[in-house]
Amino acid sequence: MWHVSKLICLLIGNGLKWIYYGGKKPMSEVAKEDNEIIGFVIIAFIFFFLYSSNKSKI
């Protein structure tokens, strides 16, 4: 399970960094960097906003 979550964080982090560069930098160069932290932060923000929006409805 840990490997799957790490893979998801890497995919989100690499994709976001590739979008940040506007697609001008090849994905192979972006993937050389460790973008797992970026993906984890994005997932944490998504869960935080989903949790806070559901909590306000209660």
Q: Describe the main β-sheet briefly.
A: none
Kindly report the average pLDDT value: 89
N- and C-termini, Cα separation:
31 Å
Give the number of DSSP strands.
0
Q: Compute the gyration radius: what is it?
A: 14 Å
What is the helix/strand order? HHH
* Overall 3D shape: elongated
Beta-strand content estimate: under 5%
Description:
The structure is a single chain. This protein is mainly α and 58 residues long. It has 3 helices and no strands. The protein has helices at residues 2-20, 27-32, 36-57. The longest helix is centred in the C-terminal third of the chain and has 22 residues, at 36-57. Keywords: Membrane, Transmembrane, Transmembrane helix. The chain crosses the membrane at residues 37-53.
Offer a quick outline of the entry.
With 58 residues, the protein is mainly alpha-helical. The chain is 81% helix and 0% strand. The protein is elongated and about 45 Å long.
Attribute tags:
58 residues; mainly alpha; 3 helices; elongated; transmembrane; membrane
